[in-house]
Amino acid sequence: MVSWSDGSDSSEHTREYMSSDSDDGTIKVPASTEDSDFEGPETDMYVLCHGHGKAAERRVAFEGIHTGRRFLCCAEKEGKNCGIVEWIDPSWPNTLENALSKLWSMYEQTKIDRTEECLMHSFAIHDLTQEKKKLQAAYEKLVEDVNALMDAHEQRAVIQRKDAETTKLQEKYDTVKNIAVAQAIVIRNMKLKLAEERKNLQIHIDELKKTVEESNVKLEGIKAIING
């Protein structure tokens, strides 16, 4: 145990030492709160830590049943400390200690409840995040499907326009084809009629030739008679 020396009568204060509560010898000093009336190194009583050669530090406890009690502790910030030098204030009455114990229990339970509440909120946020991701994925899929549907509709409209144009071209082709067929029929009929008229004309020509020949024969006979 580390020895301490001070320049005053220690019987005026409640001297308590703490043993090491860890494997490396570091002693846990009670939690404290800031108090401008009792802070900094203790210079009035000259309480020194022989192990570190530093003046003890003034603190006000803020932990459990010791809440509000002033004490001196080792001022070493790093490494092994020497535990509590001594309590300046005596222990609180049992009723106050019980009240402080209950208050700290309520505080700890509140911390636990808040931790659990934060955890539940975290789970809820996680669930909402996952639901948001699902909704986002569903929305993106819906947008993709709508775009695909619009593309299909546009392609169908293009095909319908092409079909309409093809139908019109087919109608025009059929019309031209029918006209060509009609013209071919007319030409064929005209050829047949022309051939028939040509045949009739040839018959008429042959008849005229025959008449001319007969007339020539008759003329030669008349000439013979006249000359004879």
From TrEMBL:
Name of the protein in question: GRF-type domain-containing protein
Coiled-coil ranges from the UniProt annotation: 125-152, 187-225
GO molecular function: zinc ion binding
InterPro entries: Znf_GRF (IPR010666)
UniProt-listed PANTHER family: GENOME ASSEMBLY, CHROMOSOME: II (PTHR35163:SF8), OS02G0467300 PROTEIN (PTHR35163)
Record key words, sorted: Coiled coil, Metal-binding, Zinc, Zinc-finger
One matching Pfam family: Zn_ribbon_GRF
Taxonomic classification: Eukaryota, Viridiplantae, Streptophyta, Embryophyta, Tracheophyta
Domain spans labelled GRF-type: 49-91
Chain positions covered by the region annotation Disordered: 1-39
